[in-house]
Design a protein that fits this description.
It is built from five helices and four strands; from the N terminus they run βαβαβαααβ. By secondary structure, it is mostly helical. It is elongated, with a radius of gyration of 18 Å. It has a two-stranded parallel sheet. Helices cover about 45% and strands about 10% of the residues. The termini are far apart. The protein folds into two domains: about 35 residues, no CATH class; about 70 residues, NAD(P)-binding Rossmann-like Domain (Rossmann fold, 3-Layer(aba) Sandwich). It comes from Trapa incisa. Its EC number is 3.13.2.1. Pathway: Amino-acid biosynthesis; L-homocysteine biosynthesis; L-homocysteine from S-adenosyl-L-homocysteine: step 1/1. This is adenosylhomocysteinase. Belongs to the adenosylhomocysteinase family.
Length: about 130
């Protein structure tokens, strides 16, 4: 397959980091374009694109309404901010709660209560499964 590839475009921070690592150690087999670091990608697509695509994708993939569900967003970069904005029913209430001293919870604190988990970090160990 690599012989047929003209090149690739990578649009995630973690993916771009991996491509730079591959380039440095000589294992990158084809040209790669870093689309992640363009201003329009990082400031518009990451933040605003998620506001539309996350709820739409969740409902299409699961055929379940997300209204009334508890969602947890792990990460608060541009993608995390867009996801949180999409899933927060009343951002003014969320801000008021924060200002009034309510704490931001860890994943361990909410794992047994949440219905939806969205990870928006490049951290491969952010989620886990135990049986």
């Amino acid at each position: 397959m690599k012989e047929r590839l003209v090149g690739v475009s990578e649009e995630t921070t973690t993916g771009v980091k991996r491509l730079y690592q591959m380039q440095a150690n000589g294992t990158l087999l084809f040209p790669a374009i870093n689309g992640n670091d363009s201003v329009t990608k990082s400031k518009f697509d990451n933040l605003y694109g998620c506001r539309h695509s996350l709820p739409d994708g969740l409902m299409r993939a699961t055929d379940v309404m997300i209204a009334g569900k508890m969602a947890v967003v792990c990460g608060y970069g541009d993608v995390g901010k867009g996801c949180a904005a999409a899933l927060e029913i009343d951002p003014i209430c969320a801000l008021q709660a924060l200002v009034e001293g309510l704490r931001v919870l860890t994943l361990e604190d909410v794992v047994s209560q949440a219905d939806i988990f969205v990870t928006t970090t490049g951290n491969k160990d952010i989620s886990w499964l135990t049986t």
